[in-house]
Protein backbone atom coordinates (compact mmCIF):
# COMPACT_ATOMS: atom_id res chain seq x y z
CA UNK A 1 0.00 0.00 0.00
CA UNK A 2 1.46 3.35 -0.97
CA UNK A 3 1.86 6.29 1.40
CA UNK A 4 -1.00 8.30 -0.13
CA UNK A 5 -3.43 5.44 0.48
CA UNK A 6 -2.27 5.19 4.08
CA UNK A 7 -2.78 8.92 4.55
CA UNK A 8 -6.25 8.69 3.02
CA UNK A 9 -7.13 5.83 5.33
CA UNK A 10 -5.84 7.75 8.33
CA UNK A 11 -7.47 11.11 7.59
CA UNK A 12 -10.80 9.69 6.35
CA UNK A 13 -11.17 7.63 9.53
CA UNK A 14 -11.49 4.42 7.56
CA UNK A 15 -8.43 2.92 9.20
CA UNK A 16 -9.73 -0.29 10.75
CA UNK A 17 -6.91 -0.98 13.22
CA UNK A 18 -8.12 -0.23 16.75
CA UNK A 19 -5.52 2.05 18.23
CA UNK A 20 -4.98 2.02 21.99
CA UNK A 21 -1.63 3.20 23.29
CA UNK A 22 -0.11 0.95 25.92
CA UNK A 23 0.02 2.24 29.46
CA UNK A 24 3.51 2.65 30.96
CA UNK A 25 2.95 -0.48 33.06
CA UNK A 26 2.10 -2.47 29.94
CA UNK A 27 4.92 -0.94 27.89
CA UNK A 28 7.70 -1.65 30.39
CA UNK A 29 7.09 -5.34 29.86
CA UNK A 30 9.27 -4.65 26.81
CA UNK A 31 12.12 -3.39 29.01
CA UNK A 32 14.28 -6.34 27.96
CA UNK A 33 13.96 -5.02 24.39
CA UNK A 34 15.10 -1.49 25.29
CA UNK A 35 11.92 0.32 26.39
CA UNK A 36 12.24 2.45 29.53
CA UNK A 37 10.47 5.30 31.33
CA UNK A 38 12.47 8.50 31.46
CA UNK A 39 12.28 9.58 35.12
CA UNK A 40 12.85 13.27 34.36
CA UNK A 41 10.12 13.66 31.74
CA UNK A 42 7.97 10.64 32.62
CA UNK A 43 7.84 9.60 28.97
CA UNK A 44 8.28 6.14 27.56
CA UNK A 45 11.37 5.98 25.39
CA UNK A 46 13.26 3.42 23.35
CA UNK A 47 16.97 3.04 24.07
CA UNK A 48 17.94 2.65 20.42
CA UNK A 49 17.34 6.33 19.63
CA UNK A 50 15.94 7.72 22.93
CA UNK A 51 12.86 9.02 21.12
CA UNK A 52 9.45 9.03 22.87
CA UNK A 53 7.29 5.99 22.26
CA UNK A 54 4.42 6.64 24.67
CA UNK A 55 1.81 6.94 21.90
CA UNK A 56 2.43 3.47 20.45
CA UNK A 57 0.12 0.49 20.69
CA UNK A 58 1.33 -3.12 20.77
CA UNK A 59 1.53 -3.22 16.99
CA UNK A 60 3.70 -0.08 17.06
CA UNK A 61 6.16 -1.62 19.49
CA UNK A 62 6.40 -4.90 17.60
CA UNK A 63 6.83 -3.03 14.33
CA UNK A 64 9.55 -0.80 15.82
CA UNK A 65 11.49 -3.86 16.97
CA UNK A 66 11.82 -4.93 13.31
CA UNK A 67 13.42 -1.61 12.22
CA UNK A 68 17.06 -1.50 11.24
CA UNK A 69 18.07 1.01 13.95
CA UNK A 70 16.53 -1.13 16.71
CA UNK A 71 18.03 -4.37 15.40
CA UNK A 72 21.44 -2.67 15.32
CA UNK A 73 20.90 -1.51 18.93
CA UNK A 74 20.01 -5.05 20.05
CA UNK A 75 23.04 -6.53 18.30
CA UNK A 76 25.66 -3.97 19.35
CA UNK A 77 24.61 -2.19 22.54
CA UNK A 78 22.13 -4.46 24.36
CA UNK A 79 24.56 -6.23 26.69
CA UNK A 80 24.48 -7.18 30.38
CA UNK A 81 25.26 -3.62 31.53
CA UNK A 82 22.46 -2.16 29.39
CA UNK A 83 20.02 -4.84 30.57
CA UNK A 84 20.95 -3.99 34.16
CA UNK A 85 20.29 -0.28 33.50
CA UNK A 86 16.91 -1.08 31.94
CA UNK A 87 15.96 -3.37 34.82
CA UNK A 88 16.93 -0.70 37.37
CA UNK A 89 14.86 1.91 35.49
CA UNK A 90 11.88 -0.46 35.43
CA UNK A 91 12.16 -1.20 39.16
CA UNK A 92 12.53 2.49 39.98
CA UNK A 93 9.40 3.32 37.95
CA UNK A 94 7.43 0.54 39.65
CA UNK A 95 8.55 1.81 43.07
CA UNK A 96 7.36 5.33 42.27
CA UNK A 97 4.19 4.21 40.46
CA UNK A 98 3.07 0.84 41.87
CA UNK A 99 0.61 -1.04 39.74
CA UNK A 100 -2.83 -0.98 41.28
CA UNK A 101 -4.92 -4.06 40.64
CA UNK A 102 -8.40 -3.18 39.45
CA UNK A 103 -11.31 -4.93 41.11
CA UNK A 104 -12.93 -7.63 39.07
CA UNK A 105 -15.60 -6.41 36.70
CA UNK A 106 -17.76 -9.43 37.34
CA UNK A 107 -19.44 -9.27 40.70
CA UNK A 108 -19.86 -12.42 42.70
CA UNK A 109 -23.43 -13.39 43.37
CA UNK A 110 -24.40 -13.24 47.03
CA UNK A 111 -25.69 -16.50 48.40
CA UNK A 112 -29.16 -16.54 49.89
CA UNK A 113 -29.78 -17.99 53.34
CA UNK A 114 -29.57 -21.79 53.20
CA UNK A 115 -28.03 -21.78 49.73
CA UNK A 116 -24.70 -23.43 49.06
CA UNK A 117 -22.34 -23.80 46.14
CA UNK A 118 -22.37 -27.31 44.73
CA UNK A 119 -19.20 -29.17 43.83
CA UNK A 120 -18.82 -30.90 40.47
CA UNK A 121 -20.03 -34.29 41.70
CA UNK A 122 -22.99 -32.82 43.60
CA UNK A 123 -23.91 -30.71 40.57
CA UNK A 124 -23.81 -33.79 38.32
CA UNK A 125 -26.17 -35.64 40.69
CA UNK A 126 -28.47 -32.60 40.81
CA UNK A 127 -28.55 -32.32 37.01
CA UNK A 128 -29.26 -36.04 36.68
CA UNK A 129 -32.24 -35.61 39.03
CA UNK A 130 -33.51 -32.62 37.02
CA UNK A 131 -33.19 -34.62 33.78
CA UNK A 132 -35.14 -37.54 35.26
CA UNK A 133 -37.88 -35.20 36.44
CA UNK A 134 -38.01 -33.53 33.01
CA UNK A 135 -38.30 -36.92 31.28
CA UNK A 136 -41.02 -38.02 33.75
CA UNK A 137 -42.96 -34.83 33.01
CA UNK A 138 -42.58 -35.44 29.29
CA UNK A 139 -43.83 -39.04 29.59
CA UNK A 140 -46.75 -37.97 31.80
CA UNK A 141 -47.70 -35.30 29.28
CA UNK A 142 -47.62 -37.87 26.52
CA UNK A 143 -49.90 -40.19 28.53
CA UNK A 144 -52.34 -37.37 29.40
CA UNK A 145 -52.58 -36.32 25.76
CA UNK A 146 -53.27 -39.92 24.79
CA UNK A 147 -56.02 -40.08 27.44
CA UNK A 148 -57.43 -36.77 26.16
CA UNK A 149 -57.77 -38.20 22.64
CA UNK A 150 -59.81 -41.14 23.92
CA UNK A 151 -61.98 -39.21 26.42
CA UNK A 152 -65.51 -38.18 25.42
CA UNK A 153 -66.82 -36.58 28.65
CA UNK A 154 -66.44 -32.76 28.61
CA UNK A 155 -65.81 -32.43 32.39
CA UNK A 156 -63.04 -35.03 32.32
CA UNK A 157 -61.56 -33.40 29.17
CA UNK A 158 -61.46 -30.03 31.02
CA UNK A 159 -59.65 -31.66 33.96
CA UNK A 160 -57.17 -33.33 31.63
CA UNK A 161 -56.50 -29.99 29.86
CA UNK A 162 -55.82 -28.33 33.24
CA UNK A 163 -53.45 -31.18 34.18
CA UNK A 164 -51.66 -30.85 30.84
CA UNK A 165 -51.17 -27.09 31.36
CA UNK A 166 -49.76 -27.70 34.85
CA UNK A 167 -47.40 -30.38 33.57
CA UNK A 168 -46.24 -28.14 30.71
CA UNK A 169 -45.38 -25.47 33.26
CA UNK A 170 -43.52 -27.97 35.47
CA UNK A 171 -41.67 -29.40 32.47
CA UNK A 172 -40.69 -25.83 31.49
CA UNK A 173 -39.32 -25.27 35.02
CA UNK A 174 -37.19 -28.42 34.78
CA UNK A 175 -36.01 -27.34 31.32
CA UNK A 176 -34.99 -23.94 32.73
CA UNK A 177 -32.95 -25.61 35.47
CA UNK A 178 -31.25 -27.81 32.88
CA UNK A 179 -30.57 -24.84 30.61
CA UNK A 180 -32.67 -26.29 27.80
CA UNK A 181 -34.32 -23.81 25.49
CA UNK A 182 -37.86 -23.34 26.66
CA UNK A 183 -38.90 -21.95 23.28
CA UNK A 184 -38.03 -25.22 21.53
CA UNK A 185 -39.87 -27.35 24.06
CA UNK A 186 -42.97 -25.13 24.15
CA UNK A 187 -43.15 -24.91 20.34
CA UNK A 188 -43.07 -28.70 20.06
CA UNK A 189 -45.81 -28.94 22.71
CA UNK A 190 -47.89 -26.36 20.84
CA UNK A 191 -47.65 -28.37 17.63
CA UNK A 192 -48.64 -31.54 19.50
CA UNK A 193 -51.65 -29.76 21.04
CA UNK A 194 -52.63 -28.41 17.64
CA UNK A 195 -52.61 -31.94 16.24
CA UNK A 196 -55.21 -32.93 18.86
Descriptive notes:
- The protein is 59% helix and 3% strand.
- The protein has 196 residues and is mainly α.
- It folds into 2 domains: 10-96, no CATH class; 120-195.
- The longest helix has 31 residues, at 120-150.
Topology of helices and strands:
Blueprint: H1 3-11, H2 24-27, E1 35-37, E2 44-46, H3 58-64, H4 68-76, H5 80-96, H6 120-150, H7 154-178, H8 182-195
Antiparallel strand pairs: 1-2
Briefly summarize what is shown.
This protein is mainly α. The chain is built from eight helices and two strands; from the N terminus they run H-H-E-E-H-H-H-H-H-H.
- The value of Rg in angstroms is 33 Å
| Helix proportion range | 55-70%
Unreliable stretches (pLDDT < 50, length at least 5) are: none
Order of secondary-structure elements: HHEEHHHHHH
Keywords:
2 strands, 2 domains, 3% strand, mainly alpha, 196 residues, 8 helices
